[in-house]
Design a protein that fits this description.
This protein is mainly beta and 271 residues long. It contains three helices and 16 strands. A hairpin with a 2-residue loop joins strand 1 and strand 2. The N terminus is likely disordered.
Length: 271
């Protein structure tokens, strides 16, 4: 009887812990699929260099309902001449979007590596089991535990889509600690206001909320990504500006299906 009570108590503790790291999901549903074109600034000219797609479906993990989200980026032959890019990202989250598992398999240039994270929530903390396979095949394992909620680049993206922008002030910073399999980054999302954005090679315009993802490293703040998300309940990313170590890139939304909410942010044009 004592053991049964302990198991019940422990189970409720785990549920409460991951609930603290969750958020109500009103932005997307199972079956959502998004596609993007990737552009790179080459000698002051924007050249299409690849595509990306992101899909979310409801699945099961350890017998419980979860969201399974994948992101695939593929460079084309133009980019391959300078920098090979083949990234596949996968994450599992609880239905409240608290993270469970993350994997990134990336071929970037001549380097291929794998990052994995497993999340558990003992004693209301966030515990990470981290695994990295380097380009030379060497494996690294380590564990870390934090009092605060920690995310990865996929689960934080899902979470950010559910922020209530009506409660944000221009210039407000939202802490977003993100980990990979090697280190925890001191990072945050900065809300920078609203704009009307015209899509590339299209007459379509959207009312958008704008955010900057910023990371502090070596005592300096660096903007890594600028997001333009629809100013409606979908908070759909329609453009991303990427500030990379080897140049600048942009991602433009080219198609979508399976949205949870009506696209009320579109102000002109046709999809």
């Amino acid at each position: 009887m004592k053991r049964l009570l302990f198991v019940i108590f422990a189970s409720f503790s785990m549920m409460a812990a991951h609930a603290q790291c969750g958020i109500e999901n009103t932005a997307f549903k199972s079956g959502e699929y998004l596609s993007y074109d990737l552009y790179f600034n080459w000698k002051f000219v924007w050249v299409k260099v690849g595509t990306a797609s992101m899909s979310t479906v409801q699945s099961t993990r350890a017998g419980k309902p979860v969201f399974r989200t994948s992101l695939i980026t593929r460079g084309n032959s133009k980019l391959d001449n300078y920098f090979v890019m083949r990234d596949t990202l996968l994450c599992y989250t609880h239905m409240d979007l608290s993270p469970l598992y993350f994997r990134k398999g990336a071929r970037e240039g001549k380097r291929y590596y794998v990052d994995e994270l497993w999340y558990t929530y003992p004693n209301s903390n966030c515990h990470l089991r981290m695994h990295r396979i380097d380009a030379d095949g060497e494996e690294h394992w380590k564990d870390a535990e934090y009092k605060d909620c920690i995310y990865d680049m996929m689960s934080i993206f899902l979470r950010a889509r559910n922020f209530d922008a009506s409660k944000l002030k221009v210039g407000e910073n939202i802490p977003m600690p993100i980990s990979d399999a090697s280190h925890l980054s001191h990072s945050w999302l900065k809300y920078t206001g609203k704009t009307v954005l015209k899509m590339k090679n299209s007459s379509v315009k959207y009312r958008c909320l704008t955010f900057s993802f910023i990371e502090r490293e070596d005592g300096k703040n660096k903007e890594l990504i600028r997001f333009y998300v629809t100013d409606d309940r979908n908070h759909l990313p329609v453009r991303l500006d990427l500030f990379l170590s080897f140049g600048s890139a942009k991602c433009y939304l080219t198609g979508f299906k399976g949205l949870r909410n009506e696209m009320t942010s579109r102000v002109s044009g046709k999809n």
